[in-house]
Amino acid sequence: MTSKELRKKFLDFFKKKGHAIIPGASLIPEHDPTVLFTTAGMHPLTPFLLGEKHPAGQRLADAQKCVRTGDIDSIGDNWHLTFFEMLGNWSLGDYWKKEAIEWSFEFLTEKKWLDIPAGKLSITVFAGDKDAPEDKDSAKIWQKLGILKERIYYLPKEENWWGPAGQTGPCGPCTEMFYDTGKEKCNSNCRPGCSCGKYAEIWNDVFMEFNKTKEGKYLPLKQKNVDTGMGLERTIAVLAGFDNVYETELFKPIIKKIGELTTKNYPLPTTHYRIIADHLKAATFILAENIEPSNVERGYVLRRLIRRAVRHGRQIGIKNIFTHKVAESIIEIYPELKKNQDFIFEQLIREEEKFGKTLKRGLKQFERLAKNNKITGEKAFNLYQNYGFPLELTQELGKERNIKIDEKDFQEALKKHQELSRLGSEKKFKGGLADHSKKVTKYHTATHLLLAALRQILSSHIYQRGSNITAERLRFDFSHTAKLTPEELKKVEDLVNQKIKDGLEVKWEEMSLEEAKKQRAMGVFGEKYGERVKVYTIFNPKTGEIFSQEICGGPHVKRTSELGKFKIIKEESSGASVRRLRAVLE
Ligand code: SER
Q1: Among protein residues, the one whose CA lies closest to atom 4 of ligand 1
Q2: Strand residue runs (E) in 147-231
């Protein structure tokens, strides 16, 4: 079965069961500061799991692209992936365990659907602890459907509980479905969840009945939800009889391409190939969201993935710049990426070149340090600072030689450095804004209105890429692939002018960066902030409605009515996937 067929079958099945099919969301969570990437299908649905009404109803199903970096050390095994697709069905306060499990079973085993013999399935359920009881109900339902008792395993919270990535929010016990590949047990304790590869987890039904609070309490949710996730790659693999995901149509051409690029003969020990394919696939999808490699947040994850892939490439004898060639094979599998391919190739080449230069020198330096069989956190920080070695890379190289790197020391060295550079940038900031002439202040506020308007009119994926203000005009760069149409420009201009006319108020508060993110204040992409930041909010004093909220040093006007008339005078490109606007206040 192809991935396309499986996707369709899954959605058809749940449509028949009364579910509305909704489109998958972006890989970049739109309004959730607790995670960098969408890690599961439930993620974009969080507000609805907490009780908000979903416009499509109480039964939903979709296919969601996900990125998970928590499993990075497992990449290279048979089943784990950084980027994967999850097929999911949800009950928002509608059906509960019986229907959810029965439908999972029906879809997996019925001839018309996946036709997996029930005897190939092993099931896990929650064992119970102080927060919630043993999930006997689920076990009973499975048994009734014909799953043998000895194929049902009771596992603790670490394995059979779905908690949100951000630690707080909707959660609950789950029951997981594993496909038994038929391999020998690796030892007498081998069971679903064992990493030997005998069991492939293909589906997870979560019974969300709690909301975990900041204080670590599990409060009953107002509405009980079901959240399920089936791994697309894993499922097509087991249906085809493979014991790993890399032989499927979603990976085979990538592995083949990597083989062609090596100077050694393909196939070789598989781990390097797998890591390269996995990481570059994830990197390609992240790049398609207009994220660039950097040293912070998403950019840093991206950088780590690319650099790790490059290092594994070197290990199998790939000498030349190659990541963009692998990306080519990825884009062939996922044609929806085609529209971003120029940006993807350009960024991969640039990052690989950057890394290639430092890798050579860094490896020499690493060898020098490793001679003493000890690398301090501070030395590891120097490798990071001077040779672009992410800590994980130094740790990985250290592991190969049995050298442990003290992570705490590394973090301390990093913090010290960041404080120093912040001092530097604050000084610059003061100098740059020394001329607080009234006009400049107005343009500053107009820039915030402009960003908020662009996000509202064009797409909430827009981020600021650069800004330059003089007393005569503002210039604003932002992430966006397409040229703006005259209608779009007009709409943006009109919205800004409307907000000027509405006489919105501008206020600011100082808070920790964490609080600012929690409040979903916009930041400048790739910018490093200190612990404490200023957040400017532009809001309607009558309704309290917030139009814009940004981390910013200021200064700003008190009321938008001071700004005058806003006019966009030029729209142009400013590099790959970045547009530039110039505007004046009249
Ligand atoms: N949220 C659960 C998971 O990711 C089920 O969708 O496994």
Answers
A1: 40
A2: 152-155, 161-162, 169-180, 199-212, 218-231
Per-residue pLDDT tens for 313-348? 988 889 899 999 999 999 999 999 999 999 999 999
Residues 351 and 264 in one domain: yes
Q: Is residue 361 part of a domain?
A: no
CB atoms within 10 A of CB 388: 19
Residue nearest ligand 1's atom 6 by CA: 229
One domain, residues 387 and 452: no
Closest ligand 1 atom, residue 66 Cα: 4
88 Cα nearest atom in ligand 1: 6
Q: Which of 201, 217, 247 is the last residue of a domain?
A: 247
Domain tally, the chain: 4
From 261, 280, 250, select the one nearest 349 (Cα to Cα).
Answer: 280
Record the tokens describing residue 487, joined without a space.
């209608």
Q: Is residue 172 located within the same domain as residue 309?
A: no
Which numbered atom of ligand 1 lies nearest the CA of 39?
A: 4
Same domain, 450 and 568: yes
Q: State the CATH number of the domain containing residue 157.
A: 3.30.930.10
Cα-to-chain-centroid distance, residue 429: 32
Task: Show the domain range for 387.
Answer: 372-434
Known binding residues: 444, 448, 552, 556
Ligand 1 site residues (CB inside 6 A) read 40-42, 88, 162, 204, 206, 227-229
Q: 10-residue block means of pLDDT along the chain (586 residues)?
A: 97 98 85 73 84 88 92 86 97 97 98 97 95 95 97 93 72 96 91 91 96 85 94 97 95 94 69 95 96 86 92 87 97 96 96 88 90 89 81 85 89 76 38 51 93 94 82 88 93 97 91 84 68 86 92 83 94 88 93
Does 367 fall in a domain? Answer: no
**Same-domain check for residues 231 and 105:** yes
Q: Are residues 511 and 542 in the same domain?
A: yes
Residues 378 and 235 in one domain: no
Where residue 95 falls (left for φ over 0; alpha for ψ -120 to 50; beta otherwise) is: beta
Q: Among 60, 124, 162, 207, name the best residue to mutate to test ligand 1's pocket (greatest count of ligand atoms within 8 A of Cβ).
A: 162
Sheet holding 505-512, edge to edge: 505-512, 532-539, 546-551
Q: 343: CA distance to ligand 1 center in Å?
A: 31
Q: Which of 204, 234, 235 for mutating ligand 1's site (highest number of atoms within 8 Å of CB)?
A: 204
Per residue in 38-93, pLDDT (tens digit) is: 888 988 888 788 887 888 899 999 999 999 987 777 888 999 999 999 999 999 99
Residues 461 and 483 in one domain: yes
Distance 522 CA to ligand 1 centre (A): 28
